[in-house]
């Protein structure tokens, strides 16, 4: 999908120069004076930037239709919207059409056919009127009342002299009739009369309303006359004045007669087409094919999300009608436009159309200037770090206290979660939630459904936005949830994360380190290794044949413990290097683990201190288990450096350090470490045996037997194996024992047990020295690697002596040729008389 920067061309004034209010805030008074920005003052420029809404076309057709038809009675048109609702822009369009009625200008709004040939037009902006002076004209005439100004515009100085220009003296109907042109069509445009009324004294207010009523009566009683008057809708500051004016012109009031109700027609000049007005005003060109492409991609993405999780999008998102809305609002996401119009548009200071134009223009300029690829402009693309954005959305709307949320949460916390990516999911989600939080109502903010619609892109995973909100809730300082725990909203007040952060300042690194050590030591408890925790010197790690695990606070301590037996000068080398493995953390990982441990300790303190604060406890119930779990995982994974002897240290992979699913379970450290050591061939596995020649290479240097030349003790061979740099770690004596048994089986090793029995590949030789006998059927099946068990190579001098059998003498014959009985042989006196007795 193509980025909007490739498919749309903003207008020059949007991309360049100052985006001042005057560009977007239409000012009818300045247009009447032929002043102000070119986009409003110049008729051709105005209509190039004006989208011809159906309502605006109806207004123009109605106004100029009445003015063109000599048989049409006059009428009053009441434009009633809030500030920024498009009414002033509509007045400016009517003004320029009236002054250029004989041309073909703006035919997409008002067809050339059927227009009046000439229109006399007068326009006033009551907001610019003072209480004593309304307008100072260049020819020296100064007007002091609404009727004085209208008389001057319609009749010049001569017309002005016919009225008493006093705001306290209302002209009668006959005089009003003389003010209006006798034959030409006349269009009267009155803007912000309510604002002018609010400035006047009570008496002068009554006079003003009296004049408006009289003027309206005269307009509707004659042909080809139209009065267009605006009111600021439901704006609080002018509500009563607006009601007074509407009552005067017959737009409201339960006691109106049918005739009065027909006196004024109410119109909204935008009437549901605000997005088209905005697009026309901001962009010179928009690629229609790109709009269709974006609609297709987003529609498919929404259908995918709904199929995988039907609770993560509003129902409307997957409908064909919403896909059409994407086309119509392109390059803006419809949800972004809805938020600005329906949420921010309710704030008096935002002023709907002009506020929307101003905000969208700033977002467009920012995206184009940053050269970022955005498939569809959404609320997530609002860059809150820009001072202009903060000016429009915070200062202008009296929300400056949200700057803390911008700096701490959108810039810092969301930025960290995104790894610094400028438009990552976390930052986009946080930006959208803040925009939706500006109304400060209980329903402000977003739940996961609306947030997914607001900022998810087709490339995002189904749960990307939901997970981003959850992650933000665990770290942001000003993000809260509503009573249901599902709607996220930013508030001014600090949340529990901020309280924890402040409490952390009172917890030392030493306290955090103590928690880390407790966590790691507990995790590595077990029976596979004899644990030595936190040695401060090599001497604290016993140099024995037992398989040991040393948990060390630093890599330096781990390295010296594996290489040395003590810290003497010079230090003695460690003997049993194949019986010791050490674990240590890297500096950065340990620092992070200590910080997270301090956060857990702070959380526990806040939980106690705020035990009566239910909102705090609510947030703690959601974040504390995950916080504790993550701190435990980080602490354990910090100790990922494996030291054995003088070898280069290895790094434990995270999966073998602590699988996430077992992070809060029973101690898994020793089994995981054993698995790693065996898979990496750093330790012998059960059933492994040494090569016999390698075993025989351990005999020299073993403890020799005093009485048996060439023999060494089995214990010393085991110890030599634990000292050899050619061998791996060993758990117990099984490897050496199996190796000896294999050596005997291969005919290369002879074993002498304390009982005098000698095993070789031909069986066992046993018996007293003068009667040694071989049993060829008995094999060596068990063996202790002890000092009283001797081992010898097959060719050792003692091996031949051990395996020598006693030579048997032949039987002697008597004089008669019989066998002489050997008296040393005991006769048991048992005589077998049958096979069963013989077998027995």
List the helices and strands and how they pair.
Elements lengths: L3 H4 E3 L1 H4 L5 H4 L3 H5 L5 H4 L1 H6 L5 H15 L6 E6 L6 H13 L20 E6 L9 E2 L5 E2 L2 H15 L12 H7 L6 E6 L1 H7 L2 H19 L4 E7 L7 H10 L9 H4 L2 E4 L6 H9 E4 L1 H21 L11 H10 L4 H10 L8 H19 L16 H9 L7 H15 L7 H13 L8 E2 H8 L8 H12 L3 E3 L5 E4 L5 H9 L4 H15 L6 E4 L14 E4 L3 H9 L16 E5 L2 H23 L4 H25 L2 E3 L6 E2 L2 H4 L11 H11 L12 H5 L15 E2 H10 L10 H12 L3 E4 L5 E3 L2 E4 L6 E3 L14 E4 L3 H6 L32 H5 L1
Parallel strand pairs: 2-7, 2-8, 3-6, 6-7, 13-14, 14-15
Antiparallel strand pairs: 1-9, 4-5, 10-12, 11-12, 15-16, 16-17, 18-23, 19-20, 19-23, 20-21, 21-22
Polypeptide structure, described:
This protein has 840 residues and is of the alpha/beta class. It contains 36 helices and 23 strands. Helix 21 (403-417) runs antiparallel to helix 22 (425-437) and helix 22 crosses helix 23. The longest helix has 25 residues, at 614-638. The protein is rod-shaped.
């Amino acid at each position: 999908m193509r980025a909007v920067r490739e498919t749309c061309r903003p207008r020059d004034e949007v991309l360049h120069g100052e985006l001042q209010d005057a560009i977007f805030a239409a000012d009818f008074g300045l247009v009447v004076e032929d002043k102000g920005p070119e986009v409003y003052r110049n008729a051709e420029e105005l209509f190039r930037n004006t989208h011809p809404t159906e309502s605006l076309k109806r207004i123009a057709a109605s106004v100029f239709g009445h003015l063109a038809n000599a048989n049409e009675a006059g009428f009053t048109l009441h434009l009633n919207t809030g500030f920024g609702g498009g009414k002033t822009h509509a007045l400016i369009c009517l003004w320029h059409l009236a002054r250029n009625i004989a041309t073909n200008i703006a035919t997409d709004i008002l067809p050339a056919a059927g227009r009046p040939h000439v229109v006399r037009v007068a326009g006033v902006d009551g907001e610019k009127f003072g209480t004593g002076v309304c307008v100072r004209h260049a020819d020296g005439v100064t007007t002091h009342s609404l009727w004085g100004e209208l008389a001057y515009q319609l009749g010049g100085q001569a017309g002005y002299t016919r009225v008493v220009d006093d705001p306290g003296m209302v002209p009668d109907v006959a005089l009003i009739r003389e003010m209006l042109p006798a034959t030409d069509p006349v269009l009267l445009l009155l803007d912000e009369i309510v604002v002018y009324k609010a400035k006047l004294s009570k008496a002068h207010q009554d006079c003003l309303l009296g004049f408006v009523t009289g003027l309206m009566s005269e307009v509707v009683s004659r042909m080809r006359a139209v009065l267009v008057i605006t009111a600021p809708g439901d704006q609080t500051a002018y509500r009563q004045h607006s009601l007074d004016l509407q009552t005067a012109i017959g737009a409201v009031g339960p006691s109106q007669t049918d005739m009065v109700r027909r006196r004024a027609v109410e119109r909204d000049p935008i009437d549901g087409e605000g997005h088209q007005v905005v697009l026309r005003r901001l962009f010179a060109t928009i690629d229609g094919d790109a709009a269709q492409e974006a609609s297709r991609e987003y529609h498919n993405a929404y259908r995918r999300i709904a199929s995988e999780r039907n609770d993560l999008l509003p129902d409307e998102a997957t409908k064909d009608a919403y896909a059409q809305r994407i086309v119509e609002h392109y390059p803006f996401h419809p949800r972004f436009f809805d938020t600005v119009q329906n949420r921010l548009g309710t704030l008096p200071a935002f002023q709907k159309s002009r506020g929307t134009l101003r905000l969208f223009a700033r977002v467009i300029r920012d995206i184009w200037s940053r050269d970022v690829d955005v498939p569809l402009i959404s609320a997530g693309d609002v860059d809150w770090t820009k001072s202009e954005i903060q000016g429009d959305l915070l200062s202008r709307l009296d929300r400056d206290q949200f700057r803390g949320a911008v700096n701490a949460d959108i810039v810092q916390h969301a930025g960290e979660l995104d790894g610094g990516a400028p438009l990552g999911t976390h930052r986009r989600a946080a930006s959208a939630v803040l925009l939706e939080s500006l109304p400060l109502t209980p329903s402000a903010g977003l739940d996961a459904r609306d947030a997914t619609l607001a900022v998810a892109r087709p490339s995002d995973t189904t749960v990307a936005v939901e997970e981003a909100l959850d992650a933000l809730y665990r770290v942001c300082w000003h993000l809260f949830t509503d009573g249901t725990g599902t709607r996220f909203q930013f508030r001014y007040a600090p949340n529990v994360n901020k309280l924890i952060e402040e409490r952390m300042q009172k917890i030392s690194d030493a306290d955090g380190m103590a928690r880390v050590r407790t966590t790691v030591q507990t995790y590595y408890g077990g029976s596979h290794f004899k644990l030595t925790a936190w040695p401060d010197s090599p001497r604290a790690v016993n140099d024995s044949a037992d398989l040991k695990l040393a948990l060390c606070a630093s890599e330096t301590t781990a390295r010296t413990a594996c290489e040395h037996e003590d810290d003497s000068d010079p230090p003695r080398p460690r003997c049993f290097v194949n019986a010791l493995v050490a674990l240590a953390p890297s500096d950065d990982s340990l620092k992070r683990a200590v910080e997270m441990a301090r956060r857990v300790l702070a959380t526990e303190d806040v939980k106690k201190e705020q035990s009566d604060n239910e909102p705090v406890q609510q947030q703690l119930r959601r974040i504390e288990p995950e916080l504790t779990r993550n701190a435990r995982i980080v602490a354990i994974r910090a100790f990922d450096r494996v030291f054995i002897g003088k070898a280069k240290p290895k790094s434990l992979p995270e999966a073998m350090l602590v699988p996430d699913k077992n992070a809060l379970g029973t101690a898994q450290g020793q089994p995981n470490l054993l698995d790693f050591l065996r898979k990496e061939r750093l330790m012998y596995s059960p059933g492994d045996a040494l090569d016999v020649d390698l075993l025989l290479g351990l005999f020299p240097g073993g403890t020799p037997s005093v009485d048996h030349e060439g023999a060494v003790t089995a214990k010393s061979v085991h110890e030599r194996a634990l000292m050899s740099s050619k061998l791996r770690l060993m758990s117990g004596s099984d490897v050496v024992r199996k190796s000896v048994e294999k050596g005997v089986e291969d005919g290369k090793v002879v074993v002498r047990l304390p009982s005098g029995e000698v095993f070789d590949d031909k069986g066992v030789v046993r018996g007293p020295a003068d009667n040694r006998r071989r049993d060829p059927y008995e094999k060596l099946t068990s063996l202790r690697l002890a000092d009283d068990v001797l081992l010898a190579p097959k060719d050792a001098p003692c091996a031949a002596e051990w395996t020598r059998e006693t030579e048997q003498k032949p039987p002697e014959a008597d004089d008669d040729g019989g066998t002489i009985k050997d008296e040393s042989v005991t006769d048991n006196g048992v005589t077998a008389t049958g096979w069963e007795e013989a077998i027995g």
